[in-house]
Amino acid sequence: MKLSTLLIAIGFAIVSLTTWEIYCRTMQYQVAPNDDQDLWVHHRAKLDKLKNDDVVIIGSSRVMFNFQLDEWEKVSGKKPVNIAAAGSTVLPVLEDVVENSDFNGTLIIGVTPPLYWVPQSMDVLPYARIQKWVNHYHDQTHAESFNHFISKNGPQKAFSFLTASNENFYNELDLRSLIQRIPTPARIPGPPPFPILYQVDDNRNVNLMPQVTTDENYVSEITDFWSFIFEPPKDPNVTLEMIEGNRRHIIDKSAQLLAKFKERGGKVILVRCPSQNKVREIERTVYPRASYWDALVKAVNAPAYHFEDYPFMNKYELPEWSHLATPDAKSFTIDFVNQLKKDNLL
User: Fold this and answer.
1) Is residue 17 part of a domain?
2) Does some domain include residue 13?
3) What pTM does this model have?
4) In the β-sheet with 304-306, what is the strand arrangement from edge to edge?
5) Mind listing the pLDDT tens digit for each residue in 82-107?
6) Based on the structure, what is the number of domains in the chain?
């Protein structure tokens, strides 16, 4: 190959990548690490080095998004370790923290009923997703760890189009998502398209995508997805006895694990973050407070904060019915930490 041809090819590649990156930035894509199992494992590995005045957050997306770590640190002097995971149930992480770590600080547990009370089976996505992450923490090879280091410190630091996630956001820019956007005849009706909801930083602090507060069509895509995904499937094989057995099992398992955690000096705080509109209606109907939240709090016997009980927790409009806008999440975090300090829990 002639040198001139090589230089032309390199120049064309640079121009193409630059043009694509400019387009991505124009469309408000952000430079961010992947919110994947490797980033989660990186933070899970911190637990055995923590002290009894440290804080760990577990749960699903509401506590992950609504608690802003920098604001928490400003008020309390300590930045929490965030190992909550979007779209996931809690028990696999709770069990791993209690059984496979020496952490005895404060455990903040987010309770989102449709996720907290999913059946604990690898056939159920919210369980399987986080159980695989927990398994990856214990089974990660040196090669996988090195690959994460390269990913974290390589080109992804500069290019927004390299950011991806484990979610099925239809408008991500990785090859998998681009291929999935190619129109094909639908064999089985699936959920509505779900646009990118959030991105994380290296500490797993979350920002909602800017469009969530500015673009009505973007928000409508998210709320359409919530309306579909939160509505429980009508399965004739699922009986009331099965539902009640699952409810009781998860409450009993939570109480058992947290009793063991408290025995070694750990503190537990339960949090029910706000939801609104159709999401709240579904939660109220399918997971009535008395049978689920109140029963869990009684069994666990720990301080608990439900958004219906505290004006500072329910004064915000949720743009997509399930999470606080990032500016509101910052003030929510400050108010929440101040409440914990007032209650002598921090």
Assistant:
1) no
2) no
3) 0.83
4) 81-82, 55-58, 106-110, 267-272, 304-306
5) 999 999 999 999 999 999 999 999 99
6) 1
